[in-house]
Amino acid sequence: MNNPLINPGIGTPFWMLVAFGILVFILCKWGWPMLLEALKKREIAIADALNAAEKAKEEMKQLTAHNEDLLKEAKIERDEMLRNARLTSEKIIEDARLKATEEADRIVETARENINYEKMKAMHELKNQIATLSIDIAEKVLRAELSDRQKADNLIHRELEEAHLN
What is the pTM assigned to this prediction? Predict the structure, then answer.
């Protein structure tokens, strides 16, 4: 059992303590400050990254809200444009209907006037023909009546009696 690893002598732990002390001194003098500085930089970098992430998150919220506002405005504008287009089309249709009604009324009125004109013209022609026929018949009757002198005198006296002179 004389194994130096199992039963170390007094010199090994002493030199181990001295080496450990030197290591602790070197680490405390140069290592820990660098390590603490690196940790501090890392902590600052992480904090900055978290702040940037929060800032980006806030900007995304603002952009999302802004986009939603723009979308609402676009929908309102679209609805307004559709309503205006619908009103315009209804107005155009109504105007066309009114013009068509006016044109139809004008055509009907013109047709009525033409019918009345043609009716009056036909009646005038009919009256003229009746007058011509009446004159022809009266002429023939008078010739027949006036062919005899006695009948002619009787006709003249009878007509004079019937005529009331003022």
Answer: 0.41
Residues whose CB falls within 8 Å of the CB of residue 7, separated by 6 or more in sequence, listed in order: 1
Q: What distance in Å separates the CA atoms of residue 112 and residue 99, rounded to the nearest whole number?
A: 20
The amino acid occupying position 15 is W
Q: Are 132 and 122 in contact (CB under 8 A)?
A: no
CB 152 within 8 A of CB 146: yes
Q: Is the pLDDT of residue 166 over 70?
A: no
Q: Which range has the worst mean pLDDT, 22-26, 59-63, 148-152? A: 148-152
Q: Kindly state the tokens that stand for 19.
A: 């080496």
The Cα–Cα gap between 129 and 119 comes to 15
Confidence band, pLDDT 50/70/90 cuts, at residue 133: confident
Cβ contacts of 146 within 8 Å, gap of 6 or more: 152, 155
Residue 4 C-alpha from the chain's centroid: 100
Rounded Cα–Cα distance for residues 83 and 89 (Å) = 10
